[in-house]
Amino acid sequence: MKGYFDHNATTPLHHAARDAWLRASEKHWHNPSSLYRDAGMASQQLESARERLGTLIGADAERIVFTSGATESNNALFASLPADAVVLISAIEHPSVREAARGRNVVELPVNAAGLVEAEDLKRLITSKRPSLVSVMAANNESGALQPWSKLAAICREHGVWFHTDAAQWLGKLEASNLGVCDFITGSAHKFGGSKGCGFLVLPKEDSRLGFIRGGPQEQGRRAGTENYPAIEAMVAALEAITPTLNEIEDKQSKLRDGFITEMRARFESLRVISESAPRLWNTVLMVMPEHDNLKWLTRLSRRGFSISTGSACSTGKEGSSVVVTALGASVEELKRVVRISSGWETPAADWQALAAAFVEVFEELNRGGKPQ
Ligand code: PMP
């Protein structure tokens, strides 16, 4: 995994998730909806995984619906709203929220210069627009900026408005036991050592509207299709394994990340780090390079064994694709110079240092106008 700095796109499988997946697949591969004893055991295991996840995120198990990932969860939520529903969504949401909200009456909730939603803006827009739902992600996938979701959820509660947070990037990086204060929560296993194609949506207790995927009665009729119990077990095992160590990881990795920024600044004076003044995920640096297109940086770093990103994997390939940098008023030219670095739980100091050194090497190569090595 040396040189892998794209953990916000996806993470390698955690060994606890792998072990749990194998155990679940070998022992409890039966269909949880079938009626014989072995199927009943699979169903019991599934419900126990739901309880354990509920404990980790501070939400009653009955509020949790398992899905195929964050994109499905976000789509399911918006599909459950009436066409004329007014929804407030922040200017920096992931495409799976922005696109899913299309067709509803969408009002954009602005962010300040640091990339954060402000409580005063939320109050003002709740009063003037009277939305039925507010959606603000917990941690931004591009900049890592941490939104004040618990404060925003409290404001929504006071005004009797549903609050949704897409916590795909928060989970597995920061303590999550208070997330349950949000009415709706989106999560995705592959962002924290689980497998791809598995996630969840938390709903308010009294909400039975969901029925985006229709068919059988699974998930209390809220999401049809045979549950992917082994992947669910793996997701919960990964989160259980990592949660007790998160404070220590944050402490260590944020120092390494800040050291990387300092080293980069020593060489690239005019380097701009997006949302630098905001509280951010310990693993993320979104930077506007002083020169050269991001794809040139990416391909040359890739040849040297480093995997980085030009922004969200969901919008790569689209010119000027950074939602966050656009929301902060950057020019099209600047957008082409954006790169994102996102480390993992165990990224060693040596990898961070080697990455900074590789940036310098690539810069010299690009300035020489030379062919890549
Ligand atoms: N929301 C956020 C904030 C994300 O970062 C991502 C992944 N880029 C998604 C949603 C989509 O997740 P999934 O791959 O599980 O559909």
Which SSEs are present, and which pair or pack?
Layout: H1 15-27, H2 37-57, E1 64-67, H3 70-79, E2 86-90, H4 95-101, E3 105-109, H5 119-129, E4 133-135, H6 149-158, E5 162-166, E6 184-188, E7 199-202, H7 229-242, H8 246-267, E8 272-273, E9 284-288, H9 294-303, H10 323-327, H11 332-335, E10 338-342, H12 349-368
Parallel strand pairs: 2-3, 2-4, 4-5, 5-6
Antiparallel strand pairs: 1-7, 6-7, 8-9, 9-10
Helix pairs in contact: 1-7, 2-7, 3-4, 5-6, 8-12, 9-12
The structure holds 4'-deoxy-4'-aminopyridoxal-5'-phosphate (PMP).
CATH superfamily of the largest domain: Type I PLP-dependent aspartate aminotransferase-like (Major domain)
Strand order of the largest sheet: 1-7-6-5-4-2-3
State Rg.
Answer: 21 Å
Count of distinct structural domains: 2
Outline the low-pLDDT stretches. 313-317
Q: What is the second-level CATH architecture of the largest domain?
A: 3-Layer(aba) Sandwich
Alpha-beta content class: alpha/beta
Number of strand segments: 10
Give the CA-based shape. globular
Compressed to H and E, one letter per element, the order equals HHEHEHEHEHEEEHHEEHHHEH
CATH class of the largest domain: Alpha Beta
Oligomeric status: single chain
The amount of helix comes to 25-40%
User: In this structure, how is the largest beta sheet organized?
Assistant: 7 strands, mixed
CATH topology of the largest domain: Aspartate Aminotransferase, domain 2
C-alpha end-to-end distance: 22 Å
* Annotation field: number of helices: 12
The mean pLDDT is 94
